[in-house]
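Below is how a single chain appears once it has passed through the pipeline. First comes the sequence as given, then the structure the pipeline wrote out for it. We keep one example in the README because the format questions we get most often are answered faster by looking than by reading.
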Amino acid sequence: MTNEPPSTQHLTALAAPDALIDWRLAVCYETAHTTGILDELPATAADIADARDLDPDAVRAVLFVLAGWRYATVDEHDVFSLGPNRPQPHERAALAQHGSWIRRWAALVPRRVRDRKATAPDTPPPMDPATGLALLESAGRPFVSAVVDTCLDGWRPRTGDRDSAHVLDLGGGHGAHAREFARRGCITTMQDLPGVIELARADGRSAAAGVELVAADAVTDLAPGPFDLVLCGNLTNLFPLDQVRDLLNRLRDVLAPDGQVAIASWLRDHGPVGAAFGVQMLVATTAGDAHGESDYRRVCADAGYTDIRFVDVDHARFTVVLARPAPTT
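Resulting structure:
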């Protein structure tokens, strides 16, 4: 973890309120990124417009916003260059994506209030899956160690070493949680969709960490247990509550007798970032939600779980929900 670039959480729609990037800057930066304006610097607005078939006045207006935040500079000859506050290479795609999400919020929130499956008139092209996973990993980096700590602290085996736990990282995506569990000595499996697992195999980091990779859709199939711990990190928020209940029911079959399930996500009633995540799920999915604490209490109980606990692992209140299958009689 120590060799990874800094997190880009502050450049996303889920930044803490006091760290949120100004929407004007984000939209202009995304425009400059996607149209190739940034790739032409240093240059005048007229030269950029000519090279990229753009309107010179519009290019100039966008670049002056970047200059206002010192993401760019402009000299006495009207030549624009990258400025001292420009994003670092690992931040550029994250900030551009933030601008794209602002446009999506503005277009879709009013429509989806009326129709949950409404579409936007101008949908940006989908991001390359590998880039998308890298951005998710970078944004979630501040929480990985704390989530793993909370999971292992919450799992109290009757016998044995907790660090030898058999762990399933379900919907593990970028694999950061799985690799951290493995680093702690856990016997770790990561399951995700076949396309995601293919990217994980190509990346090589999970295999090098000793993580077993399983390609399967969690909606229909689960890696064979028994597992002492199953982590669902930013997974249950993709589903409506009835599907979350069904998943929790099926997870009972792969949990060890002393097993535990952990759900790591933003909760809509745990502060402003969790509330914003609810709108993110509104525009990013047609059925997902930042479910609230009472929702998780209810579906966990309905699925036969007890000892339901909620741990906020960061000042912005990213939450881990912990629950155990109720003893069978």
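The mean pLDDT is 92.

See the next section for the split statistics.
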